[in-house]
């Protein structure tokens, strides 16, 4: 994994659990980090046998319109590459903010926690 340059935040880790990628967002995700995450996930899906992506946002206090768009784009790109994306751990305040911003996050399935997200991905037929 590339080391961050001085003054730059560390990249968001993307863990492989079998054929599922698990991404756990913690704290604030700056625009550059969100774009890098999108690129990293897309690359991993394209080069590995990934069938699902779980993005855990339980550690995120706020989702702005940019991050909402990036999450939706990750789901759309993953879908084009035959992988399903589940957004897990959304806090009520984040859900309210997304609704207030008018963001619908097309292509994203949600789950209350990572365990339920993994269950959803294991149900291949749905």
TrEMBL record:
Domain STAS: start-end pairs: 10-121
Cited Gene3D superfamilies: STAS domain (3.30.750.24)
CDD domains found in the cross-reference section: STAS_RsbR_RsbS_like (cd07041)
One Pfam family of this chain: STAS
Protein's name in the database: RsbT antagonist protein RsbS
Organism: Streptomyces cyanogenus
